[in-house]
Amino acid sequence: MRRFLIICFMLSAFGLMAQDKTLRVDYIFSGTDKTQEIALDEMSCFDGWAGRRCNMDNVPVRGNGQICMTAAATGRVLYRHSFSTLFQEWQTTEEATRLRRAFENVFLLPMPSGPAVVNVELYDFKGNVSASFSHLVDPEDILIRQINPDLAPHRYILKSGDPADKIDVAVVAEGYTASEADVFYDDAKKAIDAILAHKPFDRYSDRFNFVAVALPSNESGVSVPGEGVWKETALGSHFNTFYMDRYLTTLRLRQMHDALCGIPYEHIVILANTDTYGGGGIFNSYTLTTAHHPSFEPVVVHEFGHSFAGLADEYYYDDQFVEYYYPECEPWEQNITTLFDFSSKWDDMLPQFISIPTPQPEGDIWKHIADGTSEETFLGVYEGGGYQSKGVYRPFPDCRMKTNAADGFCPVCQRAIARIIEFYTAE
Question: What is this structure's pTM?
Answer without folding.
Answer: 0.94
